[in-house]
Design brief:
728 residues, alpha/beta, eight-stranded mixed β-barrel, 29 helices
């Protein structure tokens, strides 16, 4: 702002008298204009942290203080000092702030010629300058003191934090399980923690006089030294490796090491930090886990995975003309031991069997493994003195015949054994294991304590059935199964008395499978219960359609042993019969006699509960044993179906003169005396039907009566056999 503009803006009249000037000073307009002018000048000379209007208000108060001092000469110095102090408190402390303020006040307040007023004005301005300087100096000193105090507190706080950090580091350094060593740049230890002493077996005194490189395995020292040099040169940010360190006693310690360089603010290296983690416990744990992965936890024998690996190794390393023999055995009826004596006793027996089998191969080039719950495998290299198949199988059975005494009880489990022998050059691991399993199943079919050698002529059939069993669940899900219907007729007059549901499946690329084959494969595939439920729902829904048009016949559904003893059978049947309208008594479930005579009693319980529901039951696979007759007298069985193998006997001897058939002929009246009709499946000729009728059998089914029909074909047959009123 120029002086000329100041002269224009402020009401200055150099020719006025004292009274006139004082009156001008006291006018409100004059004070306001002066405050505005002063605020503008100051805002250009210093940063004042307030709005311009607020600054004008503060300066107007100063102007009024100045005027008050001019009116009272004795207060001029005090007033000037106060004004200077107030300017400093307003932060008007720029380089030109005081000069501009004095200049403005002089030009505004100073009259023309020298007089008393001029003297007072000058005195006032000098006091203003003095007060300003003193206050500014005090402000600077106060700021310096405040800064000193802040620096002092900051230093004390930093020292306190440093002590806390050092104490924390020292606590971690002394208590961590990881070994730590602080080293000079040449690798000499300066300080070590207790963990490093424990890991390496040295005392702190011994380590402080030792170089890091002296602790490494001699075979690795050169590699580690090269890495160490790269670390110091800054070509590596750190060194982290698994290395062997040499302990004080000369043994090796498998460790994980981490080496880092400490650098100062200029980036210069001044210390090396070595951290060492002892991996011995981890290594022991890994070895233990590896062992557990490959070995059975109860017996300590190789498990299936390890056995297969060893078999692959033998086939890869032995001469092609050498022979290997694989024995796969399964303990017979072991469920009775687990359920009767408890699983702990069962585990003890498994351990004893494992020990005995291991004893048999001692001295031989062989391996024993536990490949399942009660399944074992023995692999033998056929050397000149190695026992042959028959001899070794008998050795196994003889060894297991010796009682195992547990809690005073002598237990002697038997085993079924499957055997396969191959030349190394002709063998594959998967093929040998599969062939041994096939032979084992053959041995089990022959009875307990049997052994069988793999029959290569049976292999294609086994392979095909295994494939079909594997794809069976998907076939059921995709709806590939069919339910056909076969009539059951009276052997006396040929009248249709019931309709039997029969399964069928046409796999792609394979011949059509009928009911019995479907059930057999379902047992192997694990879908036997799901297949039963689907068959029941499908057949019951069809029966509902027949009843809706007046065909009031009974539906017969045959169940396998597992389907018969299923604890959920009753709930599944209840759910099915409640979905449709037919009377539950129109359903006749043929329960397996094998399951009914079983020790668990689940099938027999199912028969009793189904009778309470109104569902009728029959027994099939009847072989005329006395125990079976006793069962028929006790349970609500509505019919009995002979076992197919007994029916086939009659096909071979239609005179009923053989002892077997004469005995069977004597059983028929006993069954009928219980009030139970006897049915004969698979009747093929009229002569057979006549013979069975003469023996007292009531019902027949099979090719002589009719082949299995589709639902629509059976509907037509029912219509043909219906009374005239129903047919219409």
């Amino acid at each position: 702002m120029s002086h000329a503009s100041s002269d224009r803006d402020l009401p200055i009249d150099d020719g006025a008298g004292q009274d006139e000037r004082v009156a001008t000073w006291e006018s409100g307009r004059w004070c306001a204009d002066l405050a505005t002018q002063w605020a503008r000048w100051l805002s250009h000379t210093a940063y004042i942290p307030m709005a311009l209007g607020s600054l004008e208000s503060e300066l107007r108060e100063l102007i009024e203080l100045i005027l008050e001092g001019l009116r009272q000469p004795e207060r001029i110095e005090t007033t000037g000092h106060s004004v200077g102090t107030r300017l400093v408190s307003l932060h008007a402390t720029g380089e030109d702030s005081l000069t501009r303020s004095l200049e403005l006040l002089c030009r505004t307040l100073l009259p023309g010629p020298s007089n008393e007023s001029a003297r007072r004005v000058l005195t006032l301005l000098a006091s203003v300058a003095s007060g300003y300087a003193e206050a500014d100096r005090g402000s600077a000193l106060e700021q310096q003191e405040t800064l000193k105090r802040a620096l002092l507190w900051s230093k004390l706080d930093a020292e306190r934090k440093l002590r806390v950090s050092e104490d924390r580091f020292r606590e971690v350094f002394n208590t961590t399980p990881i070994g730590i060593g602080l080293c000079d740049l040449d690798g000499t230890f300066r300080e070590v923690n207790p963990a490093l002493e424990r890991t390496l077996g040295y005392s702190a005194t011994e380590l402080v006089s030792t170089a890091v490189t002296e602790l490494f395995d001699p075979g690795e020292a050169e590699i580690v030294s090269a890495n160490y040099v790269e670390l110091l040169q800054g070509r590596r940010s750190g060194l982290r490796e698994r290395r062997n360190l040499v302990r004080a006693d000369g043994t090796k310690a498998w460790t994980y090491i981490a080496v880092s360089v400490l650098r100062d603010t200029d980036g210069e290296a001044y210390r090396i930090v070595l951290m060492v983690e002892d991996l011995r416990e981890l290594n022991d744990l890994q070895e233990q886990l590896y062992f557990q992965t490959l070995h059975d936890p109860i017996t300590g024998l190789a498990n299936r995975q390890h056995f297969r690996t060893r078999l692959e190794g033998a086939l890869a390393s032995f001469s092609p003309d050498e022979r290997l023999t694989l024995y796969q055995l399964r303990l017979d009826g072991f469920g009775l031991i687990n359920h009767g004596l408890g699983y702990e006793i069962g585990d003890s027996i498994v351990q004893s069997v494992a020990n005995r089998l291991s004893g048999l191969v001692r001295g031989e080039d062989g391996l024993v493994a536990r490949i399942g719950g009660t399944e074992f495998a023995v692999l033998l290299r056929q050397c000149p003195g190695t026992p042959g198949i028959a001899e070794f199988a008998e050795l196994i059975n003889a060894e297991l015949d010796e009682p195992i005494y547990i809690n005073g009880n002598g237990l002697a489990p038997t085993a079924s054994i499957g055997v396969v022998q191959r030349s190394v050059g002709d063998a594959e691991p998967t093929d040998m294991l599969w062939a041994a399993g096939v032979a084992l199943r053959s041995a089990e079919k022959a009875g307990k304590r049997q052994w069988a050698v793999f029959d290569p002529h049976r292999a294609p059939v086994e392979l095909t059935e295994a494939k079909l069993a594997a794809i069976m669940p998907g076939a059921l899900e995709l709806g590939e199964f069919e339910v056909g219907y076969r009539p059951l007729v009276s052997l006396a007059d040929g009248e249709l008395v019931a309709v039997e549901a029969r399964l069928a499946w046409q796999p792609e690329g394979h011949e059509r499978l009928e009911h019995d084959a479907c059930l057999r494969l379902a047992e192997r595939s694990g879908i036997t219960l799901a297949l039963r439920d689907w068959t029941l729902r499908t057949a019951w829904r069809q029966l509902s359609e027949w009843h809706a048009v007046g065909f009031d016949h009974q539906l017969v559904v045959g169940l396998s042993p597992n389907q018969s003893r299923d604890p959920d059978l009753v709930s599944r049947v209840r759910r099915v019969v409640e979905e449709e309208s037919p009377d539950p008594s129109r359903l006749l479930l043929c329960m397996s006699m094998t399951a009914l005579m079983g020790t668990g009693g689940e099938a027999a319980d199912n028969v009793a509960t189904l009778a309470d529901m109104g569902v009728r039951t029959a027994a099939h696979e009847f072989r005329a044993a006395p125990a079976e007759l006793r069962f028929l007298r006790k349970f609500p069985t509505r019919a009995v179906l002979l076992a197919p193998d007994l029916v086939r006997l009659a096909e071979e001897d239609e005179t009923f003169e053989s002892p077997e058939l004469r005995a069977l002929g004597g059983i028929v009246p006993l069954v009928r005396s219980c009030g139970i009709p006897l049915a004969v499946p698979e009747v093929r000729t009229g002569g057979q039907a006549r013979l069975w009728r003469e023996q007292g059998c009531d019902i027949g089914s099979g090719p002589f009566c009719s082949e299995v029909l589709s639902a629509s074909e059976m509907t037509e047959l029912l219509r043909e056999n219906a009374p005239a009123s129903d047919a219409s």
